[in-house]
Amino acid sequence: MEIITSIGSKIGELLVEPVGRQLAYLIFYQDNIAALVDETKKLKDQRDGIQLLVDAATRNSEVILPEVISWVRKVDDEITNVLERFLEEEVNANKMCLNGLFPNLKLRHSLGRKAKKYAEVVLKLQQERKSDRISSPPPPTGMPLSTSMKPFQSRTEILNQVMEALRDKNMHIIAICGMGGIGKTTMAKEVARRAKEEKLFEVVVMAVVSQNPSVMKIQGEIADMLRLLLAAEYTTGRADQLSNGIKKISKILIILDDIWDRLDLDAVGIPCGSQHPGCSILLTSRNVEACSQMRSQGNFTIEVLSDGEAWNLFEEAAGTSINTRDLYPIAKQIANECRGLPVAIVTVGRALENKGKDEWNDALHQLRKSIAENISGMDAYVYSSIELSYKFLRSKQAKSCFLLCCLFPEDYDIPIETLVRYGKGLRIFQDTDTMEETRNRVHSLVQTLKRCFLLVDSNKEFKEEYVKMHDVVRDVALSIASKKEHGFVVRCADIIDAWPEIDRREDCTTISLVADQIKTRLDNLRCPNLKLLHLSANRILKLEKNFRDEMKEIKVLALRNMRVRSPPSSLRVLQNMRTLHLEFCVLANISPIGALVNLEVLSLHGSELEELPGEIGCLQHLKLLDITSCWLNGILPGVLSSLTRLEELYMRDTYLRQKDHEFSASLAELICLDDHLKVLDFGPQELQLLPKNFVFQNLTRFRISICASMTNDLNLPHLGDGPLRCFTHQNYFSGNQLNIMGDMDAFKETGFEIHPLLEKCETLLLIFVDKLNNAWMDEVGFSRLKDLHLIACAGVEYLVYTNSNLSGELPFSLLENLKLEHTTLKALCHPDFLQEAATRQMQLESDIVVELQLFHNLKLLHLGPCAEINCAFSTSLANGSFPQLQRLSVNYCPKMEGIVYKETGENGQDIADMKTIVFPKLTVLQLHNLHVLTSLYRAMDDNNSVQLCPSRNDIHMTPKVPESPNVLVPFKILKWLPSLEILSLDSCREVRVVLDFHGLMVMPLPEKEKTNNSELIGGEDKDDDHFHGIDYQYWCLQCLPPLARKHKSVKGNNNNTALKKSQDDQIITTSSHSDSQGEVSDHRATEQVLYNLKDLQVYRCESVTVIFNFGEGHGSFPPVLNKLRNLELINLDELIHIWNIKNCPQQVITSSFQNLTSLQISSCPRLRYLFPPSIAKLLMALESIDIRGCESMQVIVARKEEDENVNDVLVLSFLHLRSISLLEMKNLSCFSDQPNCAIRFPSLENVKISGCPMLKTFVTAAATSVEDTPKLKQVEDSDLPQPQLSKWLGDLNTTIQHNFQLKQRNALFLGSLAEGYISYVGECNPPSAV
């Protein structure tokens, strides 16, 4: 009973709580609803508050937390979909029943229960958002990605190089350099856009550094783009915060724009290199030195625009109005005045947009007068940009040197030596004592100005002696120099009648007048503070009047092309003068110059005068005397010996009309000047006239030319004037140069000691030195020699002979330039010397290249004419001895069969591996008049015939050596020439194929699968593998004969894959060749073949049949010749294919020849078409096509290759093609006869046709329209008479067809006239009766 009672009480307890809860729903339903309404309102308020915070965070670009977004969405769903409907519909429902007599207990219970449950949900939602954090800082957005860079070729090339550097994981800091306004920032923005598009970096940011960098500002710009909050007060703490933020981004590009000086990256907080391998830095600067100080690993310099690019940019800036007949020629001249500087082009173009002709003419006048600041906008944009570069120069000497350069005309090659002498006279370099110290300082300053792009390199032959100034930079320099504090007055004109107008003559310090004719007189010039007067005329100017006291401050006087009977006696008032130039003048008596006792520099270069008078000996402070190319009656005794402080004497090509013994006595006076004389430029003179002790111990620089004999035997008419020009050229020089002509035995006979000069010599020119033997070359050693030029020197068979010391200092270790002409040279090194070196290398088990380092500094090598040499280098010599070689020229070597020949030891083994040969810096290769040359690489067998891989059709089961295919550059040696830019081939009669890419075929196998031919042909049966003595290890698979292709495994990276024989006993149907390990390689990943080649010229090679050979088979090629711009093929009698892909229709050539701009083909009589469609698709950059004298050519673009679907629509767009010239091609019928072919020429402007009688139409597939050639307005056909010469009928096809019909009618008309004339002549002259 107790058990029942306890169970019952427990059940009662369990039932009471649920029953009570249910009753509570009923009893307190209104309270539950009120509580729900109250909590719902609180939730709404909470949700609205959160939304305000979300909106604020969104406006600040912050990222809303996912849980916040989810909570807001959940609240909206609960309130909108559930609670509001419950409160509006169910709560307001009728709660009574039986017509309102009784309450509806069931409904009230339900309402109370739901209200209670909903309230719990609302409370739970309220509790979920107790945290105040609703967002996170925004992610780094980086810089805005926009660009205005034009797709100019000059810019695209640099851009591609920069992008390639950014892809290189080993390059962390690179720089874009160039003068102000050249477009560095624009390119940097384009780099940023492309880098982001290609996903090279997660984030790209940019900060402007400027000439006065603020570390905090740079930190702030980067932090803003990265959405970083730099809370630290000082730069050190901010740098730490910024560095930590950057390190959290795995790949980031930071662009630092406008670098003027070295910026401490650590101080800014930019981690780089080992600190953060994923951080790349791109600098832009007009100062290369600043980039180098920041350890830039690659500096990419932007040059000015080409003429065509400059005009396109100017046309865009100035608008279409410039194309009118009145403005076009003026606009062309104005665009040329901007000299390709983008900021000047855009500024001037926009300033003249929609202006009238008078304003255009005035602008042209302003530009030509170098006062372009009067043109609206020029001062603000162009001048300020370049002037900043000038102001930022730290050295006052650099600024003065820069301003001196504006004394000369536009586009002038400024002699650096002139800057040295002017600067010395003006006392610009007061901390230099000697002339050599001053010269070193000026050359250093010139380099500084070049690195700041305020000066540029000259294009002259001896460009290291000159410098140039961009015309726009010169305008800015003139603007600066003409200000009061500098006082320059510079005028360049055809005729100058009077001195320029000068507002305040006392402010004038420098006057430079350069003209064809100067008519003004010196006595009219009154400038009391004038320091430099530079007058240069192309016509003789007479100087007769006196110098006035107002000119007594002159320190530098330079007169050129003047006739001076005698310098006036008033010259003595110029006691402050330090430099006097009287160059190319006619001078009767120069004795008054002796009164200028403070004179330090006297140049009479190229002048004609009676004699060097005794008064010149009074110039006790004279440091430099230049009488180069002077015509003198003589030098008075005692003059030269009196110049006790003379440091430099230049008397090259000085013509002296005095007796030999008198001249010899004058030369003997120089010996007493040995203590001070540092520079001597002398000759050419006969050896007999030189004193026996004519040796100067203290010379730091000399150029001495000695003729050992002046007999007629030394006349060299058959050599041309090149050698004599080298022997007597009048340029200033650097280094020690010795020129010798004649027999070396003459030096022994006269007792003249030549060896001290040879030991110091850096440049040596030997002409017709008969007794120059190999032993003599070894004896001298030439440890300092940098330039060696031998002309017609008999007896020299080798430069390095057998007795050269291998263990000591090697000869020619510093040699940079080597020219050998008309010599009996057989090789650079004697074979026994190379054999000895190879033996020594094998004994030491070391690399011969590392040990020898022969010609390790050679940059230029010129061979020829040389009648005996048959190869330039052996494999051991080529294998690493020429790491600096940049230019190789071989001319007129009748026995030259190859450039590199295979070298073997006594037992027949290879001394060096040809696969490791590379000429890493060779940019120019010229091979001219080498009549038996067949290839760059000659592998000789015992019969001196080449062993190369033949085609499979030539394989026979006999030991016959295959015939040479005569390929100039076979695929195996393409990697020898990674930097080659220019390849010129002329009159090489035996070459048949120029460039062979056959071995670069990519096999259609997975990338990791590689094939070793030695395994494919088996390893068990070596006798069968090498049957008949032929080694097939490195033959291409397709060339293997059937017995050599055995069933073997293919060696892969991690596994072996069996290759099954096909029914025709072939292993792989595609052709590929082995790499250096004998494995077939997939080149798609990294191979870029002849990537830097820009110009290819092939002239008069009568056996050449193919230029680019892509071989046979299927597959895709790696990129080849992607920088090739100019292709010239002239007088190639046997040329059949330029691009030989006829036998490989399924080959994929997708990324080659894409920068080819100019195509010139002339006199190739067997060429039937120019290129196939697959090549035409690649020529997107082609600008001009010039074809003439190809009598077999029928079409320009051939039909599609075999096996291709001819029904496919072919679209060819020559986007940049501007000019087509088709001359003297009697069988040419059309540009393309491809069915279903559409060809577009959006840039075509000129079409010239001559001697093409069969040209019926342009494109046979369809009619052309105006949209295909929107810029073409005429077709010039010289086969038509003048009225019909340039007719235009709206589209190209219609015009060509119309011209063809006209020519047909004209031919018929002329034929009928001829028949009528013959008939008339026959009637007038009947045959006489028999």
UniProtKB/TrEMBL annotation:
Gene3D superfamilies: Helical domain of apoptotic protease-activating factors (1.10.8.430), P-loop containing nucleotide triphosphate hydrolases (3.40.50.300), Ribonuclease Inhibitor (3.80.10.10), Winged helix-like DNA-binding domain superfamily/Winged helix DNA-binding domain (1.10.10.10). Residues 129-150, 1051-1081 are annotated as: Disordered. One of its GO terms (biological process) is defense response. One of its GO terms (molecular function) is ATP binding. Pfam families: LRR_RPS2, NB-ARC. Residues 1051-1079 have a biased composition (Polar residues). The keyword Nucleotide-binding applies. Keywords: ATP-binding, Leucine-rich repeat, Nucleotide-binding, Plant defense, Repeat. SUPFAM superfamilies: L domain-like, P-loop containing nucleoside triphosphate hydrolases, RNI-like. Residues 170-306 form the AAA+ ATPase domain. PANTHER family: AAA+ ATPASE DOMAIN-CONTAINING PROTEIN, NB-ARC DOMAIN-CONTAINING PROTEIN-RELATED. Belongs to the disease resistance NB-LRR family. This is AAA+ ATPase domain-containing protein. It comes from Rhamnella rubrinervis.
